[in-house]
User: What shape does this take?
Amino acid sequence: MDATTVKTVIDPVKLEKLAEVAVKVGLGLERGQDLVVTAPIAALPLVRFITKHAYMAGAGLVSTFYSDEEATLARYRYAPDESFDRASDWLYEGMAKAYAGNAARLAISGDNPMMLAGEDPAKVARANKANSIAYKPALEKISNFDINWNIISYPNPAWARQMFPDLPEDAAVARLAEAIFTASRINVADPVAAWAEHNANLHKRSAWLNGERFSALHFTGPGTDLTVGLADGHEWHGGASMAKNGITCNPNIPTEEVFTTPHALRVEGHVSSTKPLSHQGTLIDDIQVRFEGGRIVEAKASKGEAVLNKVLETDEGARRLGEVALVPHSSPISASGILFYNTLFDENASCHIALGQCYSKCFLNGASLSQEQIKAQGGNSSLIHIDWMIGSDKVDIDGILPNGGRVAVMRKGEWA
Ligand code: ZN
Ligand code: ZN
Assistant: This one.
């Protein structure tokens, strides 16, 4: 495919609207702000629209870094063994410097979810670990919400083929493009206004949960009986929120979740995944884990179990939770019935939990807490943050009050 032209099956008017939403709603980019973009090479047509709208919004400088599937695979096939313990630390140091100087960050996802499925899991794990370590200084500025950031998706042909293997490539790309536009609320007369209304609804849900001050959530369903203690002084978030640089942004597009920080030491019971997890090229399916004192002590999967266990060995925090999120089963992404093999979409179809790093913003006065205080209140820390889906129309959730009382939060996957 010629990456420099828009595939005619992707409506260029809608693609430009997606770019406009990314800049105005996703980033809330301010006049004079620089922008760092990362994207798969196939997303070039979207990058060009984003660059146009960023400069129209007054961006100082837009810098884009592309990834390419063939180049990534060439490393796995031909690079010397030592290569897999290395990462481009100089690049990430530069990104961290840009964010320290108040640059915004936009990531375009859309890589082939099965890209690394045939590669050596040990090499994949080593390369991921090296990358996580090198990326940490830049990632911390994002996960601590120092700057406004956003992730959106492009209907990459390799991803579309994975999702719709029975369709010819053009039809698959067209279907994925429409699914992305619908989920991202682009298929309406005024997408920017639709996002304002959606953000108001998510703010209403998180305000209710913050008022209840639950000490734990109890999930029950097929293969699941899990009590997730919530961190001391946790705070629920959802929809647009303000970064520490004072700019209001929507980090994820689409987004349907309200989410908070679990207590790293207070998770008990067992839980089963309700959708497959596509993790950096490997599909992990039918995950079943058991927690004791917040730590995963048993982990199984029908597919990708070796990769799951490697992930859990990343560091001590990889076996504990950093996020719990609520999404109604009737969300547009769930209603589409499509499995995207992409966490950005699939996590918004379902309630989920995340292994690893917590978000410091999910604490009352989170911006002013030190790392030690966050840890003391139950916030987890890790090199990873991996969301996986545990909600469905068969899962009920109760909120447990500090006095032991119970409040119905969700019944059969819907807000009670
Ligand atoms: Zn989430
Ligand atoms: Zn997450």
Observations:
- The mean pLDDT is 94.
- Residues 194 and 314 are 40 Å apart (CA to CA).
- The chain has two domains: 3-183, 204-241+251-415.
- Residues 121-143 form the longest helix (23 residues).
